[in-house]
Amino acid sequence: MLKIFVSWSLVVFTLFSVLSNKLAAEGIFDTIISVDGAAITNYELEQRILFFSFLNEPGDTLISSRQSLIDDRLKMAAGSKDGFALTPTELENAMLDFAKNSNQSLGGLLNLLKEGGVDAETFRDYVEVGVVWREVVRKRFGSQSQPTESEIDRALAAERAEGDISVLLTEIVLPAGPSQLEESRKIARELAKITSIGSFSEKAKKLSVSSSRDNGGKIPWRNLKDLPNGLRQIIASLRPGQVAKPLEVQNAIVLFQLRDVEELGLKAPEIISMKFAKITGINSVLDLATKTVNSCNDLYGLVKLDKDVVLEMLTQHPDEIEQATALRLNRLDRHEMSIFSDSPDSIGNMIMLCERNYTTSADISRSEVAKNIRAARLTNLAEGYLAELRTNATVIFK
After folding, report:
1. What is the pLDDT at residue 16?
2. Are the C-beta atoms of residues 304 and 348 closer than 8 Å to each other?
3. CATH number of 8-144
4. C-alpha–C-alpha distance, residues 247 and 320, integer Å
5. Could you tell me the mean pLDDT of each successive run of 10 residues in the chain, 398 residues long?
6. Is the Cα dihedral 374, 75, 110, 12 positive or negative?
7. Buried b / exposed e across 211-235, counting CB within 10 Å, b at 16+?
8. DSSP string for 325-378
9. Which long-range contacts (CB under 8 A, 24 or more apart) does 141-145 make?
10. Helix, strand, coil: what percent of the chain each, to 5?
11. Quick one: pLDDT at residue 360?
């Protein structure tokens, strides 16, 4: 759903002021980026920034708008190569669907966009790229995304707590602070292409900042239903050797490769809450804690001994836990710890799992599970294909 705020007019005014000064100096229709010879103009960038601001896209709209336009050229070139072209009726229906999902009529949405300085053509082009890309992905990867009956059974068992399904994962955690994000994204795109379990583990030893790097990123057997919501569906859609789409969390990018799956046929209930501790302090103190603390109760004494250590005790449903924390808790057993830090002298944080509380889950239809697996696989394959197109493209900034 689109969130249109009262402050939209102020945002538009501010953006127009900044962009108008820039365009006055450079020329509104001058080419600023070339993607395999296809031009992106100042005007298109201005329009995409205004449109993304209208959609309340998170992050830096200039950076995301620029990358989005580059990706659009690559996606449309792929569509042209595969012979996809929308008819006027198909395009209009897609625009109507977009408006409907925003609780607007098409005319009403276009009027709102016009008030914000966004041309109807900008909206039309954005919708067209989305539809063409979906068709490209379906044609190229549709057969690969279809789950087998056993895979659906396995996912159903995990959701219904009718079976005990364990997975072996290898993780790579890349640092992704503001100065590292773009470089880590490039590395993550290359890592996501790896299909060799051994090669992925070697990369974990060299690149990962997680404590698991010492073991080649290998995580012990974990019950599928113990994984955080969202990650559970992604992992369930993988086959051994496949790497999931990189997950961007706070100050890190996380990749998982599925090594193996084991079905024991035992009943295992769903987690309804997790009790865990978050400790922040100097890394040398946290390292000492790993040697002296044996349970969550011991942490209170640690805080009393060092006033600079901050302790939080939390009990939350897995879906309520912040994603970066949930990913770390996933690989912990009761009273195990995970430290995340950049250097021995800096401030780091430690997570300690106190307990998991379980119950049974609600029934889920077979068709819905199959649909979720297909969607997760298509998303993963689409990201990989787009990363390949980016790598092979000649992009020139002027």
Report:
1. 47
2. no
3. 1.10.4030.10
4. 17
5. 38 46 62 93 93 83 91 95 91 92 89 92 95 93 81 66 73 90 92 93 93 90 78 82 88 92 59 87 79 84 77 88 85 82 69 78 66 82 86 89
6. positive
7. bbbeebbbbeebbbbbbbeebbbbb
8. HHHHHHT--TT-EEEE-SSTTSEEEEEEEEEEEEE------HHHHHHHHHHHHH
9. 141/377, 141/378, 141/381, 141/382, 141/385, 142/378, 144/377, 144/381, 145/373, 145/374, 145/377, 145/378, 145/381
10. 50, 20, 25
11. 46
The strand pairing partners of 199, in sequence order, are: none
DSSP-assigned beta bridge partners for residue 314: 276
CATH topology of domain 270-359: Chitinase A; domain 3 (3.10.50)
Evaluate whether 151-268+362-391 and 270-359 have a shared fold: yes
Asked if residue 113 lies in contact with residue 54, where contact means CB atoms within 8 angstroms, the answer is: yes
**pLDDT for 268:** 47
Q: Which amino acid is residue 64, in one-letter code? A: S
Measure the CA–CA gap between 371 and 76, rounded to whole angstroms.
26
What is d(CA 233, CA 345) in angstroms, rounded to the nearest whole number?
Answer: 38
Residue 9's pLDDT is: 40
The Cα 212–Cα 281 span in angstroms is 21
Cα angle 207, 321, 341 (rounded to 5 degrees) comes to: 35
Return d(Cα 197, Cα 195) in angstroms, integer: 6
Residue found by looking up tokens 């992050």 in the block: 59
Q: Where are the domains of the chain?
A: 8-144, 151-268+362-391, 270-359
Three-class secondary structure of residue 262 per DSSP? strand
Q: Which tokens is 136 given?
A: 């490209």
Q: What CATH code is assigned to 151-268+362-391?
A: 3.10.50.40
